[in-house]
Amino acid sequence: MAEQGLxxxxxxxxxxxxxxxxxxxxxxxxxxxxxxxxxxxxxxxEKVRKEGGYTEDTRFVLHDVSEEEKIEKLHKHSERLAxxxxxxxxxxxxxxxxxxxxxxxxxCHEFTKLVSKLFEREIVVRDANRFHHFGGGSCSxxxxx
Length: 145
Prior knowledge:
Blueprint: E1 12-17, E2 20-25, H1 34-52, H2 67-75, H3 78-89, E3 96-100, H4 106-118, E4 123-126, E5 131-135, E6 138-139
Parallel strand pairs: 3-4
Antiparallel strand pairs: 1-2, 1-3, 4-5, 5-6
Helix pairs in contact: 1-3, 1-4
Organism: Arundo donax
GO molecular function: zinc ion binding
Domain DYW: 53-145
């Protein structure tokens, strides 16, 4: 791609909390609350594994790296960082509304369904193609996007 002058846009997600828009990119550590966000994301991931039966689907990571590195990359997708930030900074039961510049990958879609169920949150993600309304462990797209 680089040889042809093409470059991929970095994945970016936005969430509004308290009239402030917070931006996250994949693998982001630049946010002032980065440490708390990554700790919360690890806690969320552990909960969806234990209580929701979640296992990472690394088919959605296009990197020629080890399986462990693929899992690590999935864990740092921008929408997951936005979800963790939203759970930290909003009251229980408050819907989370996230915008993303690219399509949500299949693994993050499954992850978000489980988060919506286990944390009893409505999560709306507007990706490059559509709105996904997650709630109670399902998505309005019917898993077709």
